[in-house]
Amino acid sequence: MAAIAFWEDDLAADPSPTAIYEGHPHGPVGMPDSVVTITLDGKPMAARDVALRLDNYLEVELKWQGALEPGPNKIAKDLLVTFEGGTTAEFLMTSHQMHFAGHEEFVATARISPLDLAGKSKGSATALILNGPRLHPKAAPIVLVYENYEVSLAPFEHFRAMEGRNERLPLQPTISHAATLQTLDGKPFRATRLYEFLGWVCGFLGFIKGTRVGYGQVRNDAHNGFRCLGFTKTDRLHALPGWYHWALQDELPELFQSYMHLMSTDDAR
């Protein structure tokens, strides 16, 4: 079984994995990841119309249908989902509806977010930043480098427009920036090191903004590459003005280097 791929026109126009999120700051947004097996209480289900997406609050949500079968209290049973690549994850069923037309509908959400999926690796990847800061009124990417890792951060147009309207910012988690990452020596990423680096990047962005910034939807560029679905925790998008002003943009790469050196000391740990 395969999850339904959404926004195919967007993918055709821009092959970047982050392109499908432009214009969708909150979700729902479909994901093209494939589900191989859905197991309920130890028994594989004959699932159809399987759809994986981020819901309105950017939580990983799985929907599917099955033939009408007897059995009480299915919503409370153990639910395991196996993805293409072999990773099996626990899901929590949030909705179960039985229809007289002869089928059942199910909705479930991942118990852990972000959800790490194993896969191959190369030295480049993409990710999304959640509830990030406004670094500059223009859309030029900002490049940050530390040791063997480089990240380029570019705001989505919907985020720039949101910040420019001087309206009350939404309470929902907001996809703010696309992140493009690479190793400087071209060697493949290790998943743990990539996630650690993204954590440091978000820590730096949080230092700029004054509130917690998250990351998610990480995808290694290798065919069937490792990835994580969903996002880390964040604070609300709105933040009181702090020390940062966009006129300091050109100093951000050097500030990031200083921040990383400081955070890598024994006292910081």
| Overall tally of domains | 2
The major beta sheet can be summarized as: 8 strands, antiparallel
Summarize the amount of helix as a percent range: 10-25%
β content, as a range? Answer: 25-35%
Radius of gyration: 20 Å
Number of strands: 15
Strand order of the largest sheet: 1-4-5-8-7-6-2-3
Helix and strand composition category: alpha+beta
Calculate the mean pLDDT score and round it.
89
**Whole-Å distance between the termini?**
45 Å
Number of helices: 4
Order of helices and strands: HEEEEEEEEEEEEHEHEEH
The poorly predicted ranges are 2-14
How would you explain this protein's 3D organization?
An eight-stranded antiparallel beta sheet has the order 1-4-5-8-7-6-2-3, with no helix packed on it. A seven-stranded antiparallel beta sheet has the order 9-15-14-10-13-12-11. It is globular, with a radius of gyration of 20 Å. The protein is built from four helices and 15 strands. It has two domains: 8-112, no CATH class; 117-263, no CATH class. The longest helix has 19 residues, at 191-209. The chain has 269 residues and is an alpha+beta fold. Mean pLDDT is 89; it is low at 2-14. It is 17% helix and 35% strand.
